Amino acid sequence: MEILIAASIGFLTMAGVYLVLRRHSYPMIVGTAFLSYAVNLFLFAMGRLTLDRPPLVDPAAPGYTDPLPQALVLTAIVISFGMTALIVVLALRGFLETGSDRLDGGPPHEPEAPGADRAGGPA
Amino acid sequence: MIETACMIAIVAISAAALLNLYRLAAGPDVLDRVLALDTLVINAIALVVVAGIWFASPVYFEAGLLFAMVGFLSTVAFCKYLLRGNVIE
Amino acid sequence: MQLALIALVPLLGALLPPLAMRAGRNVCTVVTAGVTLAALAVLVAAAPAVLRGETVRAGTDWVPQLGLSFRFMLDGLGLFFAGLILGIGLLIIVYARSYLARSEPAGRFFAYLLLFQGAMTGIVISDNVLLLVVFWELTSLSSFLLIGWWSQAPEGRQGARMALIVTGGGGLLLMAGMLLLGQAAGSYELSVILTRGDIVRASPLYIPILLLVLGGAFTKSAQFPFHFWLPHAMAAPTPVSAYLHSATMVKAGVFLLARLWPVLSGTEAWFVVVSTTGLVTMLVGAWIALFKTDLKAILAYSTVSQLGLMTMLLGFGTPEATVACLFHILNHATFKAALFMGAGIVDHETGTRDIRRLGGLVRLMPVTAALSLVAAAAMAGVPLLNGFVSKEMMLAAAYDTHWAGLPWLVPVGATLASLLSVAYAARYGFGVFLGRRRQPAPAAHDPPAAMWAPVAVLVVPVIAIGVAPQLLAGPLVAVAAGSTIAAGSAIPVDLALWHGVNPALLMSVTALVGGVALLAIWAGLDRLRARIGAPDAKALFDRGIDATVAAARATIGALHTESLPRYLAVILATTVAVGTAGFLSGTYAPGTRALLPVGPPSLVAFLALAAASLAVVVVHGRRLLTLVLTGVVGLMVSLAFLKLSAPDLALTQITVEVVTTILMLLALNLLPKRTPLETGRLRRLRDAAIAGAAGLGTAGLAYAVMTRDLATTISDFHIAQAKPGGGGTNVVNVTLVDFRGFDTFGEIIVLCIAALVIVAMLETALRGAAARRLDQLRRSPLAADVHPLVLVVVTRLLLPLALTVGVYIFLRGHNQPGGGFVAGLVVAIALIMQYIASGYGWAADRRRFDAHVLLGAGVLLAGATGLGALLFGRPFLTSAFGHFDLPLVGDVELATAMLFDAGVFLTVVGTVVLSLARIARVEQRVERGTAARSSTAAHNGAARSGAGEA
Amino acid sequence: MRALIVAPIVLPALTAALLVLALRHRLDAQRIVSTVSTGLLVVVAALLYATARSGPPLSYDLGDWPAPFGITLVLDRLSATLVLVTALLGAAVLAYALAGWDRRGRHFHPLFQFQLMGLAGAFLTGDVFNLFVFFEVMLIASYGLLLHGGGARRLNAGLRYVAVNLVGSTLFLFAVGLIYAVTGTLNMADLAAKVATVPAADAALLRTGALLLLVVFALKAALVPLHWWLPGSYGAAPGPVAALFMVMTKVGAYAILRLSTLVFGPQAGAFSDLAAPWLMPVALASLALGAVGVLASRSLVALAGFSVVWSMGSLTAAFGMLDAGGIAAGLYYLIHSTLSGAALFLVADLVGRARGSYADQLVPAPALPRLGSLAVLFFVAAIAVTGLPPLSGFLGKLLVLAATGTAPAAPWIWAMLLATSLVVIVGFARAGSTLFWKTVPGPAPQVGPPTPIGVPIAVCAALVAATALLAAFAGPVTNELAATTRQVLDTEAYRSAVRPMRTTLQGDTGAVDPGAQP
Amino acid sequence: MRRLVPHPVLSVVIAVVWLALVNSAAPGHVLLAAVLGLAIPHYSNRYWPDQVVIRRPLRIVDYIAVVAWDILVSNVQVAWLVLFRSGPRLRSVLVTVPIDLPHPTAITVLTGTITMTPGTVSADVAADGRAVLVHCLDADDPDAVVHQIKDRYERRLKEIFA
Amino acid sequence: MATVVEIVVAALIVIGAFFLLVGSLGLAKLPDLMRRLHAPTKATTLGIGATLVASMIAFTAATGSLSVHELLIAVFLFLTAPVTAHMIAKAHMLRHPALQQQLPSPPGTGWATLAPAPVDPEAPRTGEMPPAP
Ligand code: NA
Ligand code: NA
Predict the structure, then answer these.
(1) Contact, B18 vs F84, CB < 8 A?
(2) Which of C152, C541, D67, F71 has the maximum number of C-beta atoms within 10 A of its C-beta?
(3) Is A105 part of a structural domain of the chain?
């Protein structure tokens, strides 16, 4: 299991890093979302992995998983949710203002109607 | 016996999830993928319920409940987006 | 403390002239002069003691940590210089009153002048070398303002900048030098340092100290090769040139050499560097002066040359040379200031300073001519004038100097320089005042007495000292030389007009005769000079600065491209590199913790997650698809949390996921639907390399951690105390609302701020460019039913159910998975469902509060719960809980943590609803725009059904 | 008195919440409440400083949970100093913004109060994860303030700023996670005790975590090569916001200082050499790049922005010594650069407004009235920033130079600091002469509607005067800071203030060993 | 009373849901259920502008039984089709089912029923609510499908809803 | 008694799993979206339903008190699954003009997804249900 989780963290980090390095705001935001999955799992894994020992106090429980990383991850999830909401709106707002969603100062996106992928058939 | 059944179920659900993944990969339309994701959530709910039975643990229930709620909503949101562009209008 | 007033009076007095200016120029001048007089009075009061050979000290600590004190000392050298500065300053003020045009803000001018005056006197009376540096840099700053007085002229601005850069830069070197000097000497107090010359010279820091101090002195005193700034500083009004660039500021460098002479001189390095620099400067300055056509330029280069002379003398390192230097400082100050003021009068009266357009002015302005001619003669070293005496002493000192085994080099050089100075002085006198009048004849006349009187006042000592040097200047020079050379005790000096026929006299005569002769062949020399050509220092400097700026711009332009991908690439690559270096720098042993088993669902989930991660990299151009893949990942992460004993995390992840998806869909509606894939193969490789390294790194670290045990952790306490101390069995929830409630308090504030920022950002989206773009957005074919009936009905049925679930999740949170955050999301989702199904307007009309209220109330509630504990004398956020046995109901547990959690709940609902609703509101604009357009265009269903397949 | 420790965090937070809840449509009322609250914050900060200087560090256990199990705030001279600086600067910025900036977009005052809260929290907390939370509060509020007033430029710069910081936040979590994974604690004082006992097998992991944390802080401190975000963001921010941001980079510097003295200081054994080798090269690079940027700038705010990078280089060079002299010098420089940088940004804002369409671009404009007093302010602010006498920058530079005296890196620092100082002086001289001296013929540019300018100018003047006072009273100030430095280096005092209880081996649910309590 | 309990049925449903959620009928929970049953409809009242009038509540049970049976059957049928009939041999067809139901809720229930039962999915509703578009997975006789829907479900729904 | 419960629970679990698998198989196997829709929306409801009933029985048996909260998941799914399918079908029809041509001719104003919308700028704001016919 540890190998799977470590590899998952690696894959998520990789995807996140690759995406945040893109030239347009949308993939960059998706990249930050992936990074936040990665770091949440990572932070969680820092308490080591335990099966079926939820941190719910129960006299019969044979033991508990480490609850602290979970609390930290919860805080991190909430904060990253707030940040994601903000950056999404910021990207949107910037696009509306400038007509470009480029992040490297390059020429704007080719004009395109909203819903281009709606009108499209199999994508 | 229940344990065996659970094991069988879990293997079956895993297989089902693999089939969902196949549909996700194959598409061809984004709607096929939305449908595949929706089905994946359904399978996740089943997995959670079976795990609850297997471990005789009540902590899985709420997850199943919330999966049911949000799986619906995200599928609807995707469809609404494809139908109208604006999810909230 | 009285002593400090010599510097402080002018510095603080600088505030007065602008105020006095309201009462007129005369009052202003009187006030300024009064300030100078006051400082002078303080000086004079201290003078007797100094003349008796005492050193007057005063002051106080300033920054003891640094060794920087506010201490002053007045000895002979200081008195000598301070007297010059204040005395000539007084004359300059009087002169400037007439010189400045009526329209010019004289108040500001005098303020700058006083600022400069204070700084300058500060330099010469500082007892602390760091304090000296403070005043030193202040002179650079105030002179910057004065040189740039006529800022509308490019020469003024450029000259000011150049002076600031060169002298300010020198000041930085001096600062470093003084710091090292203090370190080497063990004190920053001059009086101490002066007694520790041996220690300093023996210190390994000596050479750095010497070079740094000389760097400061040479730049300030315009020594070759830093001489070029001085002539360009002549763009300043003439009183400034007379004051700063002849009499005082440029002498600060010479003063410094004299001041530190006992400490730094006497070594081979000192001799070679200082005397050579002086000699070269003397020659170069004189040579250039000879060919300049602008009066002030001639005087400026002559000043450069004379400063070289003084520097050279100090470089010799002998008492005699030092005495000669000090005496020449005095003489030069008088005749050069007189010359500058005279040139100013000429300029003022004739409107030109071009020597080629001037001539024969003696007939038009006899007084000015007479005064200027005397001063010029003194500069040339004509006997019976003060310049002659000191120059001859210089020649005598030069004669005795052996430079690197070449005994003739210095004497010949000195004589040559004298000869050149005779030539340029003669050219100046003849070219301006004597000779024939040029055309067009300037209709000039002598200025009012107020303007020439200061010149006359200066010419008096030029003659008087020339005649009776020992009587008039002897004591002052002696006391100054004494404090320079012999640590305070006056040394005997012999300033005589006649020393008999000696080498110096012969050199003097050679110079006088040769100089006149040189003037005869001036025209030929000029052609020669023109043919040789010389690098134009200003052009070089400007080119240097321009090239530097261009290089800086190129660097910054190349680095700061405003390209986020690039910035992030550097940041992430740095992170990977630092992380790797950190890991490699420590010891590591693999862990021994047993691995958990893996079942089919885990494998499939991993497969899904890995595949989705890889796929999202490949297909990120298709944005909607990206979102679906993100959903897969979110699902798998939730399941992983659930599997690995983290039900609270799973619930949170599940609910956050859907809200994020909706948010992204809302944004995606207005954003482009595809990301053009980047073409650069190299770039993609680079990014893949960074991404791969980062992925490997995090995976490796995670694996390393998960395979080892943690010996102790603070969370054991949390588990143990959750029930007895926190009143809940869900340790994660108790941690969130109690053990680490402060984190949660911060976290809901983050949410609250996010909502506020979103609101603020979208507030302006319905105006200006954004609104226009919204109006222009064309929509692809749409479904006709905005609110599908089936969806509407079912979501309304679900609302009460979902609300009930929300309450359930909230109430159980303290003991079972759940809590305020998840509950808030569930409720928010229930409400958002209504927005999605029934529309923004419909749902917005039905909400009970402005979501702002929920936000504010949530944070306030959480905060107030925390504050409640203060009433009981407990720290913020201290929780309380109790069991209450209610009739019928039985045992009920109530905890303040629940109130806190309610604050979380409210904030979450407020944030989600507010954010999503505000985006939706913006999208209404497109909606209406489209509707408006379609109402004008002929609408038919065929257009819609003709939607192409992408 | 102890309860006051939490006030700099809770007071602005509740003020902001109140503004959102009840006064969001009433700017006048918001102004009053915000002003009163900020005034109170100044008073509280002053009281806290007085408390901190009168004794050993004080801890405040939130929720009454003993350290290291709950979150602990720690008031010591260092945190009190920075909170005081924050409060004072906040008051100045607020006064400036009240003259009209707060009107240009929604929610200025709540965001401003939240910003103050985040800053105070970051300085006061004694818990690494809580530090993360306050970083986030501070950052997200700063996003809002940066975007305040809108406009394409601000939105573009904002997006970059947010993106960079999101990556930084992720990194923070990776780092904190690793540190917890090895030490089992989050409390800084407890960490300080634990790192020395970390087994060799885990050393590489802890070092990685600690260095990643250093990267995060360096990112916040805008140290080269992590500085990218700063010039653009500060340049796009509204003037008063950029001025307030002057404290934000200091949070990064503060965190570097705190962690590398308290946790990874000399007592940390094998981990005591963590930051030092990195700080000096980074400081030098920041000095160089900041100065080059100043010279290259084409606008006043860009120049001010790069001068921040430059000043962070000086600051890091001082802190990088990690000895008493360096830290004291760094603290002085920190206060100086905060005040002077803020003054510069405010002046740049005023200049930009006064020049109408020419804004703060470094190109000559037709002659303008009313530029005179701004020229004086700019001149003085420039003197302060570039480190010329007699203002605090000069003393700061002297202190830094003197502090590096015997270090092996000293020649490098001296050479770089002095050379870049000259470059910066050149940059400022060129800028000033272009803005205030050089004119081109033509009609005066259209300037916006007259805004009240008296108070803004007074605020600038006050900040500039503050740097003068900082210089004039440098003796007492450096004495204070020397005492502060002694306390910073006295990690034992910090730890005994926090009194982290010893944690026992896992599985023992007793968890707390009462005998460990001092 | 109307103002206090705007939707009595809903209140009961919520109370029951609550008790189901907590899996308990302890007095405390009953009390809480009552409170929620009163409070939540009060809040969601605004979102429920139209009253659903159920004419014959008892027929609901009958309806549920019919549908449940059909679901069981349909699952087996569909499973059979999925497992043993490859795609092209499925005679899929879209049919229009004209309906005449009095209330959107009734229409919704019908479309839901159609989707849950043998081999049919309701793909759309007519804009005027007078027909449902049904996709049949495998139908020899589309008319039979229409007839079954109208007879088995629509008829019952008409009886239930006013 | 215990064995009967166990057998029932085990059977229900296996039945549920079977239908879940079949549903996903159908999703993977069926040739087009409209047909694929049938598989998961039906098979999964019974699949989940069976496992939920199994859970109810198992927990009731294990704890001795009635466990019915699983019903809520079922209620949610039964309410939402048809809507999901309906929405997907609507979106699919909108996106496939070819399919639109094959639609049986609608009565009255046409199918909701495709009917000409009333041209009213304020229309999107009104979220009221369509009036009952
Ligand atoms: Na996230
Ligand atoms: Na920052």
Answers:
(1) no
(2) D67
(3) no
